[in-house]
Design goal:
mainly alpha
Length: 201
């Protein structure tokens, strides 16, 4: 009974050993010998197998998936990326130039603004000086006797005379008008009337 059990237990081992020694090892040996012989004959077995594999649809797909990019493809990718980097750098330079140009424009406008403000201040100061000077002139005519002021007014241009006559006190104006020749007094009376009508709403 024990012997038959051992025989039954040893049968699968014997079959595996038989497969190993009779089929597997000789087949592997035959493949190795074939590879050696073909390589000595100058046939690149792996390249031939790859070419045959490309013709078979399923195998070619697997080969293409496993295939790594070539050095040329890497070089092309590097050149493409370098070109992209240069393009981006050129765009950045253009943007920087635009920013610089806008900064310069802003500085120029700021300088112009400062200059204009200085001119306004200067003109305002001149205007204030002119106002003070004109007030002084008016005061001079008000303090001057009508007998002396009238001939000077008569010799003036209409616009200048009118400026003084419209700004002096009413008493001084009346006194000067009395001393002016009648035709000149009439002319200035008309001009003063027109001027006052312009100022009325």
């Amino acid at each position: 009974m024990e012997k038959s059990f051992e025989e039954k237990e040893g049968q699968p081992v014997n079959r595996f050993q038989w497969f190993l020694f009779v089929i597997a090892i000789p087949a592997l040996f035959a493949i190795v010998v074939a590879l050696v012989v073909l390589s000595f004959a100058g046939i690149n077995v792996f390249q031939t197998a790859s070419e045959l594999g490309e013709k078979i649809p399923f195998v070619s797909k697997m080969l293409n998936e496993d295939e790594q990019p070539s050095v040329e493809e890497y070089e092309k990718n590097i050149i493409s990326l370098e070109a992209e980097i240069q393009d981006n750098e050129a765009k950045m330079e253009q943007l920087e130039a635009k920013i610089e140009s806008k900064d310069m424009e802003a500085e120029r406008l700021e300088l112009e603004k400062t200059q204009l403000e200085a001119q306004i201040e200067e003109l305002t100061a001149i205007q204030e000086d002119n106002k003070r000077a004109f007030k002084d002139i008016v005061k001079t005519y008000e303090t001057m006797s009508a007998k002396k002021a009238a001939p000077i007014i008569a010799e003036m241009e209409n616009e200048e005379a009118l400026k003084i006559l419209t700004n002096i006190k009413a008493e001084s104006l009346a006194a000067i008008m009395e001393k002016l020749p009648s035709d000149v007094a009439a002319k200035y009376t008309e001009l003063l009337t027109n001027e006052s009508s312009k100022q009325m709403p």
